[in-house]
Amino acid sequence: MSKKKKYILIGIGVIILIGLLSTIGGNDKSEEQQEQKELILKAAQTEIKGDLKGCYEVVDKDYKVKFAQKSYENDVITVELKRTNKELPYDRDNVVIFPEADESSAENCAGFGIEILNIDGDIIDKINAKATPYSWDEMTAALHILPDETTTIGFHFDNLSEAASFRVTSIIQKNEDKKTNEKPTATKETKSIIDDLDDDIDEDLKEAEEALKMAEDAFELAGEMLDVMKNF
Questions:
Q1: Residue 212: helix, strand or coil by DSSP?
Q2: What is the pLDDT of residues 131-170, one digit of tens each?
Q3: Can you name the residues that pair with 173 across neighbouring β-strands?
Q4: pLDDT tier at 207, thresholds 50, 70, 90
Q5: SS3 for 152?
Q6: What are residue 62's phi and psi, to 5 degrees?
Q7: What element of type H or E holds 221?
Q8: Is 49 in contact with 83 (CB distance < 8 Å)?
Q9: Which of 6, 52, 62, 92 has the maximal Cβ count within 10 Å?
């Protein structure tokens, strides 16, 4: 083999080796990025905050954040709640989530929210318990579970990369916007106007009857006078 061909083969080998090393390095970097995209959160407290405190608790376990893979997706944390034996402050058959309030005749509205905390325990993001949930079915199901039953609720955020822990919040209120199927009833003012109209009508009818009676009497008198005149 000539020296020229030998050098060419050595050069090709070096190029292939560099390519392999680059590929391996690239895989290491990809794995490192993937490792950074794995985040486990714990509940700062299992007892939830707000109006349903004591009625529900957060299941104490590790919660893995599901990071967005596409630009239009959100980071997600799915929390598991458990009902305790404490009596609920509402009727399970008479409660809805807040976005359904004005379309329901239910007496109460309730919901769950979440506070995201950083490593120092400060709130860096949150979802209000009255806000429209990502899944209406999940939120509704959570309000109706029985003691010792569990359910999950997913909460979606723009960015959870700085999150270290979380707290679940809750709220319940009277449904002031409830839909009613009752027929509308007349107000006092309306009834007063109707009563006045009835009185006016009755008075007009009475006057008409009196006028008709006077006309009949006049007609009868005219008839008698006509008879007298005929006799002359």
A1: helix
A2: 999 999 999 999 999 999 999 999 999 999 999 999 999 9
A3: 109
A4: confident
A5: strand
A6: -80, 135
A7: helix 188-231
A8: no
A9: 52
Return the structure tokens found at 78: 């799915």
Per-residue tokens: 213: 């009676």
Number of residues written out for the chain: 232
Locate 83 and state its tokens.
């009902």
**The tokens of 124 are what?**
């860096």
Q: For residue 59, give Cα distances in angstroms to 37, 46, 83, 180, 199.
A: 24, 7, 10, 38, 71
144 closest CA partner among 197, 204, 102, 93: 93
Cβ–Cβ < 8 Å for 95, 104: no
Tell me which amino acid residue 47 is: E
What gap in Å lies between CA 111 and CA 128, rounded to an integer? 9
Residue 33 CA to residue 71 CA, distance in Å, equals 17
DSSP state of 134: S
